[in-house]
Amino acid sequence: MQQRNLILLGIAGVLGLFAVFLANSFFSGVEKRQETIAAQQKQARIVVAAQDMAFGTPLGLQNLRLANWPADSVPAGAFSSLDALKGTHVALRPIVAGEPVLASKISGTDGRATLSANLPVGKLAYAVPINDVSGVGGFVRPGDVVDVILTRPMPGAGSSSSTDKMTDVVLQGVPVLGVDQVADEKDTKAATAKTATLEVDTLGAQKLALSIQLGALSLALRNVADQTAGPASTVIPRHLSVTNYVVPSRSEGGMAPPQNLGQAMASAMSRPRFPGVTPASMSVSQRPKGPVMTVYRGGVSSDYEVQRGW
Predict the structure, then answer these.
(1) How far from chain centre, in Å, is Cα 53?
(2) 276 is in which domain, residue-wise?
C-alpha cells in the first residue's frame, strides 16, 4: 500500500511538472508571437497599466503588462521591459488602464509617493488658507486651475474707513496640487477644505506669502483649458457701480494706482473732472447727471459720465 502511494505521488509530480512546462511554453510562445508581430509592423513593446491605478498605488505584475506600440511614437520615459520596474515603485499620478507607464509618473526605488516628486523642475508647492467661500464652495479640487485674488485695505492716510478696500489679481492660471491632504486628481467630489496647495514659481510663492499677511485670499476657478491671462486690474469700491471698468496695466500703457490711493479716490470723488472742461466752466446742463468713471492715462486722470443701460 505504501509503495502504491509513492508511485501515485511520483506520477502526480511528473504530471504537475509537465503542466508547468506546457504553461511556460504557451506563454513563451504567445510572447514570442507578439514580439514577431511587433517587429513585422515596426512596433515597440512597452509597459502599460493593466488596470486603473490611483495616486500611491504600488506597481507590480498584477497591474502591469507589455503592449505593442508604434515605434515612431513611443513616449519619452517609457519602459520596454517589466524587469526595469522590479523593486518598490508607486504611481505618483493617476494612470488609466492601457496608458503607458512613464518614469515621470512613478516614484523611485524608495517607493515614496511624495508630492515633491510630482513637482516639475523649478516649481514650488505653496499652501494658502481657504474656506467654503474662498475655496469656491468646495469645488476646487486637485488638478484644477485657479486665479488667486487678494482683498486688502487701501494704503495711505485717506483710507481710514473699514470699507476702503481694494482687490487685486495676484496670480492667474495656477494649478492646484492638493486640497487639505488630498492629492488624487480623480477625487472630484466637492468638499470644504482649510488649505489649498498651489504649484507656483519662486516669485509666485513670495507673492502668496506677502498676500496672506496683507489681506484675505480667495480662489476663482478656471476652465483647465483656459490658459489665457486677462488684463491686470485693481478694483475699488467706486468701481462697483460702473459697468465694464478696466484699469489698464503697465504693459498696456497704464500706470499703477497712486501710492496714497485712499486720499486720491476721496479727492476724485469730491470734484468731477472732464477732459478739457473745469468744474467752474461747466453749465448746469453740462454737469453729470449719473455715475462718473475716472480713467488714469499716463498719470493724467479723466472723468467720463456713464450712461445707464436701464
Answers:
(1) 20
(2) 238-305
Task: Kindly write down the DSSP assignment for every residue of 295-310, as one continuous string.
Answer: EEETTEEEEEEPPP--
What is the pLDDT, as a whole number, of residue 21?
65
Task: Give the pLDDT mean for 217-229.
Answer: 84
User: What's the full length of the chain, in residues?
Assistant: 310
Burial class (CB in 10 A: 0-12, 13-18, 19+), 157: exposed
Integer Cα distance of 208 and 150 in angstroms: 9
124, 215: one domain:
yes
- Cell triple for residue 158? 485717506
What was the pLDDT predicted at 186? 67
Domain-located, residue 78? yes
**Residue type, position 253, single letter:** G
Q: Using an 8 Å Cβ cutoff, are 64 and 82 in contact?
A: yes
Pick the closest to residue 176 from 265, 114, 115 (CA basis): 115
Looking at the structure of the chain, the number of domains it has is: 3
CA distance linking residue 305 with residue 270, whole number of Å? 15
CA gap 153, 133 in Å, rounded: 20
Integer Cα distance of 166 and 150 in angstroms? 8
Q: At a CB cut-off of 8 Å and minimum separation 6, what does 301 contact?
A: 268, 273, 294, 295
90 in a structural domain: yes
Whole-prediction pTM:
0.54
Kindly state whether residues 124 and 207 are assigned to the same domain.
yes
